[in-house]
Amino acid sequence: MNAIHPIAETDDTVTLRRADFERMLEALEDIDDIAVLSGAEAREKEIGKEAARADYLPAELVVRLLAGEHPVRIWRERRGLSPRALAERSRMARSYLVEIETHKKPGSVAAYRRLAGALDVTVDDLLPGTDER
Q: Are both 61 and 119 inside the same structural domain?
């Protein structure tokens, strides 16, 4: 990486050229990516590759997720559950689950906690339009 030369400095601020600022952001993103990959590799070493990858989503489900389909539906299908079975496991009305999956209702924090427990994922995995990092 080329050296970054501040344009101006005070006790509280540093002014950079935009190109330098963007290179710094790219470097930070690279560091984040390396950390995520290192964590995944460590988990694979700890519990084995097959076990560590058991909860990865297959490409076709990732495509649907990226297209805006609700993560609750994606994970429900990944677990092989019907709406009725997931509603029973998470102690909620099937109609409420369907309204969450179809984006008609946002769902309460308590509902997402119950759904996450029933699906064996984190609440962050179920929130639409979020990234776990």
A: yes
Q: Is the pTM of this model over 0.70?
A: no
In a shared domain, residues 47 and 61: no
Task: Specify whether 98 is located in the same domain as 119.
Answer: yes
Pair (79, 119) in one structural domain? yes
What is the domain extent for residue 83? 57-126
pLDDT in tens for each of the 133 residues of the chain? 578 889 999 999 999 999 999 999 999 999 999 998 999 899 899 999 988 887 788 999 999 999 999 999 999 999 999 999 999 999 999 999 999 999 999 999 999 999 999 999 999 999 877 554 3
3-state secondary structure of 80: coil
Tokens at residue 87, please?
């509603």
Give the list of residues 6+ apart from residue 59 with CB closer than 8 angstroms, or none: none
Is the separation of the CB atoms in 116 and 125 below 8 Å? yes
